[in-house]
Amino acid sequence: MTYFLILGVRDSKLKEKRLNANTSCSNCQRKSSFVVSGEASYFHLFWIPVIPLAKRLYAECTHCGQAYNGKKNFPEDIKRALKEQPVRRPFWHFIVPAFIAYKVLSLVFFYGYMYFENAKEDAAYEKEEERKEAELATYKDAYLTDKKSLAITPNMETDSISYMLKQDFPFSNYNVDASNVALFSKIKQSTNRLLLLIDIQEKKNTKDALACMLINDFKNKIIETYPNKDFDYYIALFENGTLKIVHTPNQSYSTEYKYSVPMYSFYSQDRFANSSVYNFKDRDAKRKMMLENTKTVTESSTIDTAALKKALMDVTKEFSFGYRFKKASFSKRVEYECQFVLEAGRNVPDEMFAMLELYDGNGPFFNWRSLHGRMENMNKEYETAGMEKLTINANVDDKRLLPASRSPHWVLFYADNSYKYALDFSPGKEGFVGQVILIQPQMQPKFIAKNMLAFLKLYRNKKVPMDIEDWVVKKN
Ligand SMILES: [Zn+2]
């Protein structure tokens, strides 16, 4: 029965008290002759009082011994005297209960407070949602109004950009009759946002990739015509009034948002702009760095696709990579290509086209999907980094390289366990357009080969850094 030792009921004696008040003994008629004593029980755990239980009092006349057991049997004058001189249980009976009461109360207060705060937050959230919805409605109205302004013959005075595009854009390259194209553009006051709406009013279903290149070429034409302007582009391409593709700083490519929500961000004040993935940090400084350090391309190099494919086959024979992917379906391929064009602001490099035609992903060599995905990341890193960050780990000694740790013109095509290789379309003054460079986190980029073909030959002979253990299929 050790159980009773660690918990149970215990009594403690109360301090005896002589009642000074006016009482009189019914037996001996003495005045103020009573002494009150007693005991108080408590429930204990490990002898620590947890719950105060009953208190029993006992009054006795010190003169004649007349006694009363239990408070309810006390004469009225003793009861009255006890009110003035109460016989209290010792304070240590109350320590634990007081502590528990304190804990309970603070919990009650805490949850009460939390509940109140949450209710306040919920109300604020709801209000904010309502505000957003109202705001969005105004953007939608503005957008629809602008869409109505699409014009086959843009006004030279009020819409000079559309006017210029109508005159100078090589529509015939896209098999489009210029007289069937309606345009509208405008610049948002006090920002550098440019809205461009293009509606091709011909019966045709332009392939997505082609539409993306079209958008990209529109962009390039504007950059070429206004080299000093630095716009954020919000471009929407329509076919017979139906939205086909959207291109905004936040939404590089979209055919999904048929309700053209990405375009609303053009009209917004700050909300969309601030949530933008790209915050274009130090854009002018970066542009200057590019301009001053990169080689000006005069001739476009031609790629020997047959030699390239053979070199890639040799690599495959040498290493027999696992993780070979199924060829992407044509429509997927076109989608990836399209995304790449809008991410990179350029077409998929010819080298990559040739290689992806042979293998759509081959060990650590990228497939269509990763080609565009990595491009997106590279660009984001570049756009969000300030000049300071770009110059950390920049290779400033090798004049074949841009003195930066990232470039939006590096096309990553390979990543093994440790090393990443990219085609470099922003080489330094002494570099080569389409050279291959090594990129590693926290390290300076390094020149590896003059072009992809040279790289593949070096790679096949294990003359470049590689870490491909897990990628190779073990031969038995
Ligand atoms: Zn007495």
Could you explain the architecture of this structure?
39% of the residues lie in helices and 18% in strands. By secondary structure, the chain is of the alpha+beta class. It folds into 3 domains: 3-93, no CATH class; 149-276; 285-471, 3-Layer(aba) Sandwich (SMI1/KNR4-like). Strand 6 (181-187) and strand 7 form a beta hairpin. Helix 5 packs parallel to helix 10 (330-344). The protein is elongated, with a radius of gyration of 42 Å. The model has no long low-confidence stretch (mean pLDDT 86). Zinc ion (ZN) is lined by residues 25, 27-28, 30, 33, 61, 63-64, 66. Residues 25, 27-28, 30, 33, 61, 63-64, 66 line the site of zinc ion.
Mean residue pLDDT: 86
Whole-number total of structural domains: 3
Q: What's the alpha carbon Rg, rounded to whole Å?
A: 42 Å
Q: Assign the structural class, choosing from mainly alpha, mainly beta, alpha/beta, alpha+beta, or little secondary structure.
A: alpha+beta
Give the C-level CATH assignment of the largest domain: Alpha Beta
Ligand catalogue:
zinc ion
Q: Please count the beta strands (DSSP E, at least 2 residues each).
A: 13
DSSP helix fraction? 25-40%
Largest sheet: 5 strands, antiparallel
Terminal residue distance: 72 Å
Which strand-content bin applies to the residues? Answer: 15-25%
* The named CATH superfamily of the largest domain: SMI1/KNR4-like
CATH architecture of the largest domain: 3-Layer(aba) Sandwich
Q: Low-confidence stretches at least 5 residues in length (pLDDT < 50)?
A: none
Helix count, DSSP H or I runs of 4 or more residues: 14
Gross morphology is elongated
Order of helices and strands: HEEEEEHHHEEHEEHHHHHHHHEEEEH
